[in-house]
Amino acid sequence: MNPNLGTPNLSNNPSRSNPSRSNPSRSNPSQGQGGWKACFLLLAFGLLCFAGSWALGFRAAAKGSPAIAAAEVKPTVLRQSPRQVWYPLDNGLQFGSLPLPSFLPEEEQRAIIITSWNVGSLHDREGGSGRTHLLAELLRRSHNTPSAEGEVLVGTHRTWFIEKVPPKDVTEHLKKILDRIEFQQTDASLLGRVRGDLLAQQKKQRAELVTGLQDRVLDRLSALQSGPRGQYQLGDFNLDNLDQVRRELFTPANLHIAIVGPHDPAPTLEIAKTRFGKITAGKPNQKIPNAKLLNGEIGVKRNKSGIPGAIIRSWRVPAPGSEQSLALGLLIPRLIRFLDSEGAKIIWEPKIEPEQLSVLIPIQPGELDAKTALLAARARMDAAVAYALRPDVEMSDMQYARKTMGGILGISRVHDETSMYDPMPAAEALMIQRLQNVDERKLVNQFGRNVAEQLNQLETNYISPKLSVTGIVIPTQPAKNSKP
């Protein structure tokens, strides 16, 4: 209650004028004193009522305030902050819930559910390339709500399940994820379809020399113990040995689950605590160190006639969360600006490959002979990298970094209005920050300071010729007909 509204202003209210001035005939002093006493009694009663209502309001507010409740009732029970997003369970599972409103029509709204699994292609055994991808895709298709749309992304160290679910089906889909952890796989025909789909997809990719070149570059950058990338060996896997992997590795101790977007957090948190929290933790999977880097240039290949080639250069880079990773917010926008008109690609996948950066510049078929095209491709790549490492960074570069990768690097937050149309960037940033221990409060004030030193350290420790791998595919010129 506002005291200025609850206390009448007697001096400025024309309807409550002084009675002695309005009626001179009323000269009895006892009557005048009685009138003033009545006014004071009325004022005192009003103040007493205000104080009582204010106290009741304070006690009601105290019920929603942990700090006030703690001062009023002892012993206290600690309550979670209303801004809490992550809820670590006793069995090691990390559960996140970030409800966001949506500007979209109800039928178009989707919540994003990300399951990050602490297992990647580096954990596939020798001769068993693709095991992680096969199991993850089998789990996703086996236990899935009909309205959900999703995909599986497999990286060197981690695997992500990214699924879009209507808000009304979030609770039901969460139960399906629970089934992925608890239930044995029994559908042999589904396993066959998943295996066939993955092999067909890979066969198509291997037919493209540029895609194959990228795999070969990454094999030099960080080799897999299971064999070369792009060459899955799935024939020996069946339901029994895949289910053994599920029981040993797809466990709460190796999982992060986050729900971001329009949804009711109360039932999801209840399921997390009463269902997910009761599952046996399992053994945490240990991160396997990267293989030794084999720097240098891969032998040049020729593409099919008339098909563009490319030059690809890759480096290991610092993961988000470290101070050295802030320089990526300076380097990447400048690479993009320098190469924007050439159809180049800056490949950085912080979801599954946060420690790998690649630049791909296409080489179009033209009048240049193979040797000249090779020299021109190398020169263009060298110029792009040299420009990106220069310390004369512009404000527009930093603004671009904050807008496109700010949440991932911890240098800004994902814009609220953007998240209300598409919660995916906020969901990805939330998960990456948790996985990589990104401290936004610490990093946001360091971005853009000491630019020259940050870029110099990045060049010395990561972006240098002795730490890079380069591959080139040269386009073959179409044969010229001797006669029209």
Describe the protein's topology:
Elements: H1 3-6, H2 19-22, H3 29-63, H4 66-72, E1 86-88, E2 94-99, E3 111-117, H5 131-142, E4 149-154, E5 159-165, H6 170-182, H7 188-206, H8 209-221, H9 239-249, E6 255-261, H10 265-274, E7 296-297, E8 301-305, E9 309-316, H11 328-339, E10 345-349, E11 353-363, H12 370-388, H13 395-409, H14 416-421, H15 424-436, H16 440-443, H17 451-461, E12 468-476
Parallel strand pairs: 2-6, 7-12, 8-12
Antiparallel strand pairs: 1-2, 3-5, 3-6, 4-5, 9-11, 9-12, 10-11
Helix pairs in contact: 5-7, 11-12, 11-13, 13-15
What does this structure look like?
By secondary structure, the chain is α+β, with helices and mostly antiparallel strands. The protein folds into 3 domains: 3-72, no CATH class; 86-278, Metalloenzyme, LuxS/M16 peptidase-like (Cytochrome Bc1 Complex, Chain A, domain 1), CATH 3.30.830; 296-476, Cytochrome Bc1 Complex, Chain A, domain 1 (2-Layer Sandwich), CATH 3.30.830.10. 43% of the residues lie in helices and 16% in strands. The chain is built from 17 helices and 12 strands. The strands form 2 sheets. It has a 6-stranded mixed beta sheet with strand order 1-2-6-3-5-4, sandwiched between helices. Strands 7, 8, 9, 10, 11 and 12 form a 6-stranded mixed beta sheet that branches. Helix 5 (131-142) crosses helix 7 (188-206), helix 11 (328-339) packs across helix 12 (370-388) and helix 13 (395-409) packs across helix 15 (424-436).
